[in-house]
């Protein structure tokens, strides 16, 4: 089997020091980063605007705005962020950005809405942070959920209210989770997420069905047959042991739902992005590709009822 090529992350680094890259070379290689270094904002923003393959941005706290400048200025960071935001608006994209400075405490109180890393520390944490943020943004196929219609790009799948209520419940649980990977390895955030799924299962899934069907709360909750359907779903998933069970082929409910997708005229990519196994417990290898449903900025609920 051929080894897949390593994923390379292209990042722009604006720093007035000519040798600023020297101390970063080892961590760059370790994190598969290709860094383009510019010494001033004017040149840096010019390449950022013209090269859409640049995925992230590292900014020095103080530096040169133009190449003719003789002294670095502390307005550097504020000016760079403003220019970057203009490019984001113009190109309708988000560029993950960090400040890399030896004076981070001096800047944080004035410019708090950016992630800071110190030049006194190893750069590995900064690079790892940027990689994760870039991975999230590469999931650029927006999922829209309207009732029991699930849309990705130009494709749409319509499923029954029962299955849609379950899927909507699971998506809501995932996008509200503090641990996006739901690692379930003694992680307190994962434990709380699963505990909340167990505690809130009945009320929240009934609420999702009410949104889809348009039935009022009292009429739906008094229907024992419909309530029993959802109790059966809870039993099939055994939500309290979510991570292990959800990957098991023995779960007939997963098979049943996934078979419905497979029979539909749906592309391979969308089919896989909406599979319940991917939504609930993606593996580390699957996470960058199926994490689209885990990020609350990537799932848009547009219910009108």
Structure, explained:
The structure is a single chain. With 305 residues, the protein is an alpha/beta fold. The chain folds into two domains: 9-137, Rossmann fold, CATH 3.40.50.2300; 143-301, no CATH class. Helices cover 47% and strands 13% of the residues. The protein contains 14 helices and nine strands. The protein has helices at 25-30, 41-50, 76-91, 104-108, 124-137, 161-175, 188-213, 217-221, 224-237, 242-246, 252-263, 268-273, 276-280, 287-290; strands at residues 9-14, 33-38, 56-59, 97-101, 115-118, 143-146, 149-152, 155-158, 299-301. The strands form two sheets. A five-stranded parallel sheet has the order 2-1-3-4-5, with helices on both faces. It has a four-stranded mixed sheet with strand order 8-7-6-9, covered by helices on one side. α2 (41-50) runs parallel beside α3, α6 runs antiparallel to α7 and α7 packs antiparallel against α9 (224-237). The chain is elongated. Mean pLDDT is 71; it is low at 1-5 and 233-250.
What key phrases describe this protein's structure?
single chain, Rossmann fold, 2 domains, 4-stranded mixed beta sheet, 5-stranded parallel beta sheet, 305 residues, alpha/beta
